[in-house]
Each structure stands twice: as C-alpha cells, then as structure tokens.
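Structure tokens please, single chain.
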Amino acid sequence: MPSPFDPQVIEGLYRELTKECTGQVASYIPELAKASPDRFGISYAGVNGKQQHWGDSEERFTIQSIAKTVNYCIAQKLLGEDNVHKSIGLEPSGHGFNKITLDGDHRPHNPMVNAGGITACYLIQKVCGKDALETIQKTWAAATNGEVPEVDEEVLASEKNTGHRNFAIAHFLMEHGVFEKGTKIHEVTDFYFATCSLQTNTRKLALFAATLANGGTNPVSREEVFAPKVARNCLTLMLSCGMYDYSGTFAFRVGLPAKSGVSGGLILGIPRVGGFGIWSPPLDAFGNPVRALAFCEKLSSEFPLHSCHCDCLLS
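Here you go.
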C-alpha cells in the first residue's frame, strides 16, 4: 500500500509552518526552557513500514505527556482493561491537564491527564516493582524499532525540583484511596517523572503512532507490541482526551487521535494508514505545540482523514 500523502504537499506544509512564530517554549520545567523555538521536525511512518522525514527529525527531546499513551497501554497489558478502569476513568475532565480533581467515582478522569498518568504508573509499579522503568523502556524500543530510550537526567532533575503540582496530585490520589495504604508516593512520582524524561525524536514518535494505528503491531518489525484492543482503546482516548483542554476542538477540526507533550512533541495516529511524529517547542495557552496543531489541521483539510469524513459532505 503506497503512502496516501504526497510528499511535496507535506514538504509545502512544513516550509509554510516554519514561518509560524507564535507560542512560547515551556518554562515551568526549567530544563525545557532551553529548547530553541526554531526547531521543527516532522516524520511519517505508514502501516506498510515506509517512512518519510522533514526538518529536525533526528533531534532528541523528551517524551513528556506522550508517555501517558504507552503507560496506559502497558497498564492494560499487565492488568487488563477492566482492572485499569477501576482506577482510571474514561471521560474528558473539562479541566486543565494538571488540575487536582477526580471524577464522581473518585478516579482520575482519564489516562491522558496528569492524575491518570500518575495512576497508570502506580499500577505498573504494583506489578513490575523495580523493573517498571525497564518495562517502559523496552516497550518503547519495541514500538519504535530502535534502541532502548535513555532518561534525560537533566530534565528528570528539573522535573523533580519543580513538580510540586504533581506531588500534590499524588497525595490527593492517596487521600481518596486510588493508591493503597502504604504506597511510597515519592517512588510513584519519581517513576512518573522518569517516563516523561525519556528521550525520543520525531522518527520514533511516528513509528509509535504507526504501531497504534496498525492495531498494536510494529509496521517495520511486524512484532505485536500491544493487543489490537489495547491499541484501539488508546487511540480512542487520545481522540477524546489527548490534547489537554483543547481536545474537543481538536477532534472537531482534525478528527484523529493525537497526544501532545509540553516539550513540543505530538503524535497523530491514523488507523489503518500510519502515524505522524511532530516536534516544535513553542506552545499555545493549553500546552500544545503551535506548529504541530497547525500542521494537523492543514493535513486533515488537505486529505480526507477526519474520522467523520464522508464524500457527501463535499458535494
């Protein structure tokens, strides 16, 4: 199956968006503030294994909140969907990603906000213990057809030194019984920060997005990294909850599963077609990368990708 995307069109979008200069690089994690606002990379991986790249596709940055997708998948793989969702809800929160809030059943609203991401890490740690981070790293490697990702120690230290809101969220989860009595909260938060501090680039992100889009099977190695239903569940919650408090607007305008991170990374999954990995550090007010958002909207407009698209809408 050939790529449905004309490389010249993608090249044109990339060049057009290099001129975009709005947004601010994240500064609440001091180490992230060092990123150049001019960096911009795009990668595409198809479910046929074919790959294309534009711009700064080999530059390394940290995964940040995109880690929540793989952590959610691993939690399901280890514990099963039903057990995971006893602790983590399925609905958009209606609040910012780092709000200290739970749903009506005293659970984090979904796996894509900080409370849900921290809870997924807690669940993985319960099963894997001290091997939890290695489990994450090996899974990322399997999904991206590459080496085991390293932790950026400078970013990790910066996260720990400034992560007061996440510490508060973890204590809030403990208070409301999401964590068992006796849980060592600092070990959960340290693990969560480490998963967010793993290094990646757009080439790897595109392959991860393509693995999800391919029903959990890596399109290059043909290894099943996640069961098809696990990949489907992740894509579904990315569509409804993956873009912070902009998720509804993104679903309306783009209509595809996506997840962003405050380092400027974004993954876009197109079921049965492929995945994009995009990186551009300047963020909008919601914490989403400005150039990546614009690219996704233009891509969905240029090609019939929206999940609710039908030809009759064009007649």
